[in-house]
Amino acid sequence: MAITAVILAGGASRRxxxxxxxxxxxxRTQLDRMSALAxxxxxxxxxxxxxxxxxxxxxxxxxxxxxxxxxxxPHCLHETLxxxxxxxxxxxxxxxxxxxxxxxxxxxxxSAMPCVLKNEPALRVYLTEQLCDDAGDRSVRxxxxxxxxxxxxxxxxxxLQNTNTPQQWQRALTFLGEQ
Length: 179
Hints:
The chain contains six helices and eight strands; from the N terminus they run E-E-E-H-E-H-E-H-E-E-H-H-E-H. It is α/β, with parallel strands linked by helices. The strands form two sheets. Strands 4-1-5-7-6-8 form a six-stranded mixed β-sheet. A two-stranded antiparallel sheet has the order 2-3. The radius of gyration is 15 Å and the shape is globular.
């Protein structure tokens, strides 16, 4: 199955106090690590949503992760999309492979991302409507509900933890044996 990964790395990292995408895990940036995991999970194309030169910038500013997804859609070559946050240093390729093996849109029960969606015109319409309406649902859970995504179990929930603060980051590094 041909898959496009979209790494969402455009956040302001306010709570962390530094750019989460550039923080080091096992000798490489989280951005590089997530890209490698996507390839290891079988993604043929890896796109990076990030407001900076050489990346896919948000078409509609300040709309969160779904703004990044909407901006990446015209660049996606494949029907299956794997959406990945940049800030999950414990995530494994095995978890991603389980997601992409599902028959349709899917996510893990305890975490809206990573997730798999279908790259279809209706997705672009839905995202545009939600992001352009001040009262729209801009949550990843909202698009998962809209798409009818299946919630699947993953026995290693600790891998699905975002690192949004220095304390969460230190716990993740301690778990990895890096601190």
